[in-house]
Amino acid sequence: MAPFERDPKNSWKKFKKSFDGCGSLVYLVCVMIELLSFQKGNAKLGKKIYTFSIVSGYTCPFAKDCLAKVDRITGKLTDGPDTQFRCFSASQEALFPAVRKSRWNNFEKILNAIKNNTLVELILNSIPKKATIIRVHVAGDFFSQAYFMAWMEVAKKRTDIVFYAYTKSISYWVNQLGNIPSNFKLNASYGGKQDSLIEQYNLKSVKVVYTVEQAGNLVIDHDDTSAFMQDKSFALLLHGVQPKGSDASKALSVLKKQGIHGYGKKKDVRELAVG
Questions:
Q1: CA gap 236, 224 in Å, rounded
Q2: Is the pLDDT of residue 133 over 50?
Q3: Overall pTM > 0.85
Q4: What percent of the chain has pLDDT over 70?
């Protein structure tokens, strides 16, 4: 439903502003077609970075250590059989129905666009007009080679934007080595089913660590700058809601006692997830 339908008293200025995510399309076209939803900034990234998400777990074919899925209807969260630490994005979806709905909506629009061979156009038309940096998949991952290729094509067409992503879908990346646009920064996320490919192809990588010491010589990133501004591998400290009694939960308690509480305020579960 368009904004003017929700609130007929909206001024023209507010109405036009509500379509900031419509890219180059004029507002009338935005009303008529279904666009993807992008978010602007969060506690970790600040307000200059836009983010895009699809549903967690269901779109992560190679996730293992952090795999978790949330039932679309009930909101019940189920960890994967090999889960070592819980996906923060899945926790978001369990806690907030609106977040879950938004990500499912994006996913369904993408699937429909793939079927109609219009995915590249859909993404291009949906990109916020003021975007200069976009994190692809705060939640979700590249779930197919075709989907991966669509984002690469988008980056080639929008060289004015820096795109970046964390991914465990390493094979889709490896299949296109040498063809990745320079403005799309990929970060191979350890803890998946294809970890061996990371070392085999010497890919830039990121590891989730339970302690500062565990990071070793790796820089611990706190604001994603290592993901899109540097070419070296790095580490991220464990964060989010972890299963009670698990090693991850115990490690998180230790971090909190050390004064490390993640990126946002207490109970603040905004877009902070590792891919």
A1: 9
A2: yes
A3: no
A4: 72
Beta-carbon contacts of residue 108 (< 8 Å; ≥ 6 apart) = none
Residue 164's DSSP bridge partners are 135, 185
- Least confident span in 154-163, 182-191, 247-256: 247-256
Residue 116 has what pLDDT?
A: 95
86: exposed, middle or buried (Cβ count in 10 Å: 0-12, 13-18, 19+): buried
Cα–Cα distance between 112 and 158 in angstroms, integer?
23
Residue 264's contacts (CB-CB under 8 Å, 6 or more residues apart) are 42, 43, 44, 270, 272
Asked if pLDDT for residue 4 goes beyond 50, the answer is no
The pair of structure tokens assigned to 151 is 């984002």
CA angle 214, 217, 220 (to 5 degrees): 70
Contact between 13 and 241 (Cβ < 8 Å):
no
Write out the two tokens for 86. 């819980």
Going by C-alpha positions, the residue among 197, 200, 201, 191 that lies closest to residue 166 is: 191
Distance CA 114, CA 116 (A): 5
Q: How far is CA 5 from CA 10, 38, 56, 63, in A?
A: 9, 21, 31, 41
User: What letter does residue 20 receive in the DSSP assignment?
Assistant: G
